């Protein structure tokens, strides 16, 4: 399977994502999501980028109050307020159960909880293991993908959603670098 990956990725990159040549000749893939709250107000930005050392999620967001929040990549690129159920379930191409502490887990879209301090700011740089961004096997497949932040912390084991409660922030990933 691994041997076929470069062959699959080339057409996927060309059609769905931005190619960013760097000084070293390295080519990276970048997708970005503008995050919004249920009332439509701005809540931050998430970026997934392929670099030489792997695929990384970068997040800069603003929580409603100080606290710890569950966060996932959801299977559908649609964020319809106020409940964001349009984003579908967690992205789960391997048909597993939810949570890294679940023996039947985890979903490919599972992410670590994020914490906001008194300033309500959330920042995260997280390496996504074995991650395909675009194309039929990627997060940005035909129906796209979204980042969702929930009202409560994820317990990392309760299927299917980690008991993390309502969806309070949502953003659809789109091709390209946002400056
Ligand atoms: Cu979620």
From TrEMBL:
Could you list this entry's UniProt keywords, alphabetically sorted. Oxidoreductase, Signal
Task: Identify the Pfam families for this entry.
Answer: Sod_Cu
| Residue ranges annotated for the Superoxide dismutase copper/zinc binding domain, each copy included | 44-172
What EC number(s) does this enzyme carry? Answer: 1.15.1.1
Residue ranges for the region (Disordered) are 87-110
The membrane spanning regions, by residue number, are: none
InterPro entries recorded for this chain? SOD-like_Cu/Zn_dom_sf (IPR036423), SOD_Cu/Zn_/chaperone (IPR024134), SOD_Cu_Zn_dom (IPR001424)
- Give the signal peptide range: 1-17
**Which CDD domains is this protein grouped with?**
Cu-Zn_Superoxide_Dismutase (cd00305)
As one GO molecular function, the record gives: copper ion binding
Q: Which PANTHER family match?
A: SUPEROXIDE DISMUTASE CU-ZN -RELATED
Name the protein family: Belongs to the Cu-Zn superoxide dismutase family.
What name does this protein carry? Cu-Zn family superoxide dismutase
> Which species expresses this protein natively?
Sphingorhabdus rigui
């Amino acid at each position: 399977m691994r041997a076929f990956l470069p062959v699959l990725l080339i057409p996927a990159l060309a059609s769905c994502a931005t190619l960013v040549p760097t000084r070293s000749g390295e080519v990276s893939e970048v997708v970005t999501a503008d995050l919004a709250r249920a009332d439509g107000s701005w809540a931050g930005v998430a970026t997934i980028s392929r670099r030489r050392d792997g695929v990384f999620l970068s997040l800069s967001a603003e929580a409603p109050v100080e606290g710890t929040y569950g966060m996932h990549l959801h299977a559908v690129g649609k964020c319809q307020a106020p409940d964001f159920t349009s984003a579908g379930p967690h992205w789960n191409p391997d048909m597993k159960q939810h949570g890294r502490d679940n023996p039947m887990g985890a979903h490919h879209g599972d992410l670590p909880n994020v914490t906001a301090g008194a300033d309500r700011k959330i920042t995260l740089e997280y390496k996504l293991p074995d991650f395909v961004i675009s194309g039929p096997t990627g997060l940005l497949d035909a129906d796209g993908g979204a980042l969702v932040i929930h009202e409560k912390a994820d317990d990392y084991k309760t299927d299917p959603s980690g008991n993390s409660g309502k969806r309070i922030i949502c953003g659809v990933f789109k091709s390209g670098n946002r400056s």
